[in-house]
Structures are given as structure tokens and as C-alpha cells.
Specification:
Blueprint (H helix, E strand, L loop, with lengths): L3 H7 L6 H11 L7 H9 L7 H13 L4 E4 L5 E4 L7 E4 L5 E3 L7 H12 L9 E4 L2 H6 L4 H7 L5
Helix pairs in contact: 2-4, 3-4
């Protein structure tokens, strides 16, 4: 990762210890944390920090293009420091969010195609796959449909 202070300076964003920590937390995480989670983590270092400060910082990092925000459903927003177009898997049971790695790199092409077709300025694309993570899938009772698929179809 490039020097955070230089990245902030290039975008005209003042570097503060709190802002730097928040960005480090987000860029070092694959968990796609919520603002509430970031707040809990930042309070370990800066106990007097307010949720409002953390939220404003996260939003300014988003506006500057350092992170992306996406809705996982029911207005639950997660943050990701990987701002390149990439899909996510979202567990319908526990809410876990994972990057879908080894996906074709041409997702960005869809943005250009959609912009050309609609004559609109498209800022980003979100591609989400919904289902059950291995932990939740293993703890769920099997439905007839799942059993049928496993056994080659209905009896």
C-alpha cells in the first residue's frame, strides 16, 4: 500500500491520526465492515472519538474514492477499500460478505457498455451473489429441493 499521507495529500485530504487509522482498518480488512464495526475498532485506540466523527470520515473517504460503500440489504451498508469493480457474495443467514475472487476481469466493461447504451454517467457497478456461506449451509436443514439436486432429481 502506498503511503497513506501521500494518497491523502494528492486528493487534498488532511491527514489526521483518526482518519489514517480508519483508512488502515478498512484497507486491511476483507470483512467489509459496517461503520458501527469501524467505530468499535477505532475506539480501542481513540476512546473519546464519536460515532459521528467516524461516520463523517468514512463518508469523506468514500467521496474521495478511497473506499466504496454498498448496501447488503435492509439498508445495511458495508465498506470496502478495494474500489475496483468486483462482485461480492452475501450470506442470507449470517450476513457475511466476501469478495468473489477469480471472477472475469471484464466487469468494468459492463459499466462502459451501460453508459454507452443509456447515455448516462455511471459511477460504479455492484454485483452481488446471495446464498449461504459454508458455515451456514452446513448448519441449515436440507430442503427437498437441495436433497433432490444432490440425489439427481425428485423420486
Amino acid at each position: 500500500m502506498a503511503d497513506i499521507k501521500e494518497l491523502f495529500k494528492k486528493k487534498g485530504l488532511r491527514t489526521t491520526p483518526q482518519r489514517e487509522l480508519i483508512y488502515r482498518l478498512l484497507s486491511g480488512s476483507k470483512a467489509h465492515p459496517t461503520a458501527e464495526h469501524v467505530y468499535r475498532e477505532v475506539r480501542k485506540t481513540f476512546p473519546a472519538i464519536s460515532f459521528n466523527t467516524v461516520y463523517k470520515t468514512v463518508r469523506s473517504l468514500e467521496e474521495m474514492g478511497f473506499i466504496q460503500r454498498f448496501n447488503t440489504g435492509e439498508n445495511i451498508y458495508r465498506y470496502d477499500a478495494n474500489v475496483s469493480p468486483h462482485p461480492h457474495f452475501i450470506c442470507l443467514s449470517c450476513g457475511r460478505v466476501d469478495d468473489v475472487d477469480d471472477f472475469p476481469d471484464d466487469i468494468g466493461n459492463y459499466v462502459h457498455m451501460a453508459a454507452f447504451a443509456t447515455h448516462c454517467e455511471i459511477k460504479f457497478v455492484n454485483l452481488h451473489f446471495y446464498g449461504y456461506c459454508p458455515e451456514c449451509r452446513g448448519s441449515r436443514p436440507k430442503t427437498n429441493t437441495e436433497e433432490e439436486k444432490r440425489n439427481g432429481g425428485p423420486d
